[in-house]
Amino acid sequence: MKKVVTAFLFACTAFAVPMGASMAQDAKLAPISDYVTSDVKPWLNDPAIVEAVKAQNAANANLSAADVDALDKKWRAEVDGSDHSMIDGVLNNALSKFLQGKKEASGGKITEIFVMDAKGLNVGQSDTTSDYWQGDEAKFQKSFSAGKDAVFVDEIEKDESTQTLQSQASVTISDDKGTPIGAITVGVNVDAL
């Protein structure tokens, strides 16, 4: 009987540590979630975002998985190459200008912003992303794929380019009927909150 009780207590202790760690992580992520809810979500209904996502969804409706892969490969090649025509086309569109303005207005709290369509392809962005297709990443899968009003706050990490502690928060973007149409990811400078 003593062995059973000891084994049970050991098992309970083993489960308590991860749960405690999770609670600590949740406490660290709460200010990021609060910031996104109070300062980012209010502008997700802006026509600059909604109309751009709708337009790209219509334009990309018939893209196959191979088409998406080809676009992503082209983008990645441009990131490392000298031809930036695809990247420049996105960075200079009206939505990207809108997002760049939101980043600047954040007073350093936002490090990057990018908006994705229903396939996870970039529609607009404040800064160049390393890839064009986000559909295979948690930021898209745990926001857009989770449905209306979904918010996913990723772990806090040190951003090597900015040397700041950052977390990416992703939110589903919905149309005026509440139908998910895309997602947004906002890099939040934890040190600035």
From TrEMBL:
Keywords: Signal. Residues 1-24 form the signal peptide. It comes from the Bacteria. This is Uncharacterized protein.
